[in-house]
Amino acid sequence: MSDFPFDSSDSAEAAGSSSAHASTHPFTRLTPECVLDALDSVLAPTGVRTDGRLLPLNSYENRVYQVGVEDGPPVIAKFYRPERWSDEAILEEHTFVAELVAHEIPAVPARTIDSKTLHTFDGFRFAVFERRGGRAPDLDRRDTLEWMGRFIGRIHAVGQRIPYVARPAFEIESFGYEPRDFLLGHAFVPADLREAYAAAAALALEGVERAFDAAGEVKRLRLHGDCHASNVLWTDSGPHFVDFDDSRMGPAIQDLWLLLPGERVEAANALGDLLAGYEDFCEFEPRELHLIEALRTLRLIHYAAWLARRWDDPAFPAAFPWFNTQRYWEARVLELREQIGAMQEGPLWAV
Predict the structure, then answer these.
(1) Do the domain assignments include residue 26?
(2) Which residue is catalytic, options 226, 245, 273, 313?
(3) At residue 19, does pLDDT exceed 80?
(4) 72-105: string of b/e by CB count within 10 Å (b at 16+)?
(5) 121 and 176 share a domain?
(6) What is the mean pLDDT of residues 33-39?
(7) pLDDT at residue 8 above 50?
(8) Which of 29, 96, 148, 287 has its CA 20 to 30 A from that of 346?
(9) What is the pLDDT of residues 129-168, one digit of tens each?
(10) Domain containing residue 167: CATH number
(11) Which of 130, 163, 188 is the last residue of a domain?
């Protein structure tokens, strides 16, 4: 997502609007003591205890910590946002990642402790993961893109075997119309920009509908769902994939387009390299190329609504001070207009 420059006075006003909610948000109860006690509740019976070291990691939807343990490497503890996913949906994700690992695909599964991967403590649900290191992949290298494509192809070869039941799919309604209506219905868009945003969003969603019509019926499979460079850790042995929290049913191209550069020619070349590796393990349907800019448009609308829905979480005003300012919404209007043009250009390749 592109972050528009912001004015400090605007950001202070926006951040202050959520201060009343800070003391009541569920995550305010997730103190360091609570995190350590939660980990000890599942690790201590196995003979492992935390050592008091706690490092918050870069996560906003959930809360994720690196936790030190005695006589061993640190572990990663992920505390799930209350009421976002059902237990069944979380366990579906855990099962999918475990399937990938069973097929020797480098993903990071939730650890099974006392026959369970999902645990509870003081009203919070959490999982424990092995800590894995790595660096961001160099997506300017053709061999890196091919390597990434091969592993995504392997993920999809497993993902297409059975569908999710508890997890939703990428849909125009839930990623486009519903978040658009939420933003306009809750007065997040400034009054003087509401008409412009509503008009741009309406035209953009019309373009999304045309793109999906052009693609026709495409196969839906279990995806990573948020396969951008920050969710791939690269080592000398290649990539491994982390954070399947947004995993859901959708078209294969959803796990590919987020790795593409912004310029059209460079994106076409990068996609060719990704697919060169991908099709070693999984067939790609070229009609899905119609969906790249449509999915990008849905992500932009959904992202703005995601920030709006989370604005009562005290972590969000601190991390996204530019949100909900005049200049932010001016940028969103421009962004949607640009997407309308991008969708009119058609797919990267002729299909």
Answers:
(1) no
(2) 226
(3) no
(4) eebbbbbbbbeeebeeebbbbbbebbebbeeeeb
(5) no
(6) 97
(7) no
(8) 148
(9) 999 888 999 999 999 999 999 999 999 999 999 999 999 9
(10) 1.10.510.10
(11) 130
> Are residues 164 and 117 part of one domain?
no
d(CA 228, CA 256): 8
Q: Do 227 and 312 reside in the same domain of the chain?
A: yes
Residue 331 lies in a domain: yes
Check: CB of residue 215 under 8 Å from CB of residue 346.
Answer: no
- Verify whether residue 226 is a known catalytic residue: yes
Active site (annotated) includes residue 7: no
Give the DSSP letter string of 152-174: HHHHHHHHTSS--SSS-B--HII
Is 4 part of a structural domain of the chain?
no
Tell me the Cα Rg of the chain. Answer: 21
pLDDT at 54 over 50: yes
Residue type, 162: I
CATH of residue 84's domain is: 3.30.200.70
Q: State whether 177 and 204 are in the same domain.
A: yes
Q: How many domains does the chain have?
A: 2
The answer to whether 164 touches 222, Cβ cutoff 8 Å, is yes
Active-site choice (3, 138, 243, 245): 243
Global pTM value: 0.90
